[in-house]
Amino acid sequence: MELNTQGYGNIENIKSKIIMKTIFSFLFENKKLELLSHNKKLQKSFDLTLEDYKKFNHRYKILDDNGKGKEYLINTNILLFEGEYKNGKKNGIGKEYNINGKLIFEGEYENGLKKNGKGYDNKGNIYLTVENGNIKEFYDNGNLMFVGKYINGRKWNGIIYDYNGIENCRINNGKGYIKEYGYTGELLFEGNYLNGLRNGKGIEYYDYYRLKFEGYYINGLRNGYNGIEYYDNGKIKYEGSYLNGVKDGSGRELNYYGQYFFNGIYRKCKIFDGTMKNNRSKYLELKNGIGIEYYDFGHIHFQGEFFEGLKWNGIIYNYNGEKEFEIKNGNGFGREYDYYGKLIFKGEFRNGKVWNGRGIEYPTIDELYGLLSQENIFYGFNYNKGEVEKNIFYYTGDYLEGEQSGKGEEYNWEKKLIFDGEFLKGKRHGKGKLYNDNNILIFDGEFFEGKIWKGFGKEFNKNGKVLYEGEYSNGKRHGKGKEFFENGVLKFNGEYLNGEKCGEGKEYNEKGILAFEGY
Q1: Cβ within 8 Å of residue 1, ≥6 positions away
Q2: 3-state secondary structure 140-171
Q3: pTM of the model
Q4: What does the alpha-carbon distance between residue 404 and residue 355 come to, in Å, rounded to a whole number?
Q5: Closest Cα to residue 134, out of 153, 158, 112, 110?
Q6: Over the range 348-358, which residues count as b (16 or more CB within 10 Å of their CB) and which as e?
Q7: Which sign, positive or negative, has the C-alpha torsion 18, 19, 22, 27?
Q8: For 428-519, CATH number?
Q9: How confident is the model at residue 219 (pLDDT cuts 50, 70, 90)?
Q10: What CA–CA distance (Å, rounded) separates 242 from 40?
């Protein structure tokens, strides 16, 4: 077996053991990684593991001795590609899948590029064909979208058609005045192309030709002094300078209703110099990165230094003007409040960002009003005093970069545990247990991006009895599994497809006697 470390060079081609050990000791900080390799001497030389390698790339590749291999999504067993390789690149027959496990392309590859084959949409319809490197793309109505060639993943030479199949524009050697369309025919962009990318003046659209952005581009990214971004209601969201795709330089920002709330200078999309306000009062004043952030009605929330838009050195105050804690070089431990002075987080600050490390997250005023109001009942809200009970929280656990990541627990508004498990970027991701409002376990298994996902899991009834145990995919029973009656007696043992029984299986009655066997 060979581990192809795409993105870090070909390990097989690096001869010096000293260099290898130095590189990997730095990257993995004494973690161990076992190299899977044809070269047994090399494998013995470096004590490294595949699991640790996965942390350094969005996908990883495992090849066998005859050139066949598979690629997987980072930190998962989700298959993205399976097929033939040569010199570390896709060469020969192969198949690509999306993260939902659906086939999106099958055919022949040459030097990592598609040579012959078909591409599929989420419904299994063909939207792409490749013949000797020549590509045809189709709309969902079956009409041609594009005919031509790509170079380095960019349209290079060919014809672009509108939704009715009528020729609209041409691209020659990556240049031209181009219109980009979505799969269902909506116009996404029109403007100048150079080197297969947006370059020069252009316009972006929401659906139904509603303006999204107009301005200038360099190498596919928004750039220049006169860019205008719009909300989907047609009102201006931002007008000013862009650099490499983000706000940078002088500009002003407005809310969804057209009311101005910031005018000043941005640095890398972060506010650097200027004044921000809501419809009642000032919210933030900055001068060369030094400033004051306010609560509603003028109470000081933070005073000190900002770095790239983050609180870096200074003091955070509570709504009563009392010092809560001090941030030094972006680090600290304390409490975070919303604009109205409501406690929303208690935990660690790291690198200028709240919510890093362990912490407890509380509901905001808006969440209490927006999500919990039913027939004028507000859970945990003292309606007379206008205060929120401080013992209400819905998450406690690990954070990274302001998002729930790591081990954590979620609670309902009555402080009953509803989920206990792993999180990634604010979503349930990994192993976890799901409970109902009465704190009874209803699912134990694998989650992916907030959903019951791909892998082994168990469902339980209200009495704690197993209803189903087996495999899942895309949140549905998929693969081999067993289903049980409420009394725990086996009901079905067999195969599932997209949540339905499909394939070979056995069915039993409530006494456990075999009633059916077959397909």
Answers
A1: 36, 37, 38, 62, 63, 64, 65
A2: CCCCEEEEEEEECCEEEEEEEECCCCCEEEEE
A3: 0.56
A4: 8
A5: 158
A6: bbbebbbbbeb
A7: negative
A8: 3.90.930.1
A9: very high
A10: 52
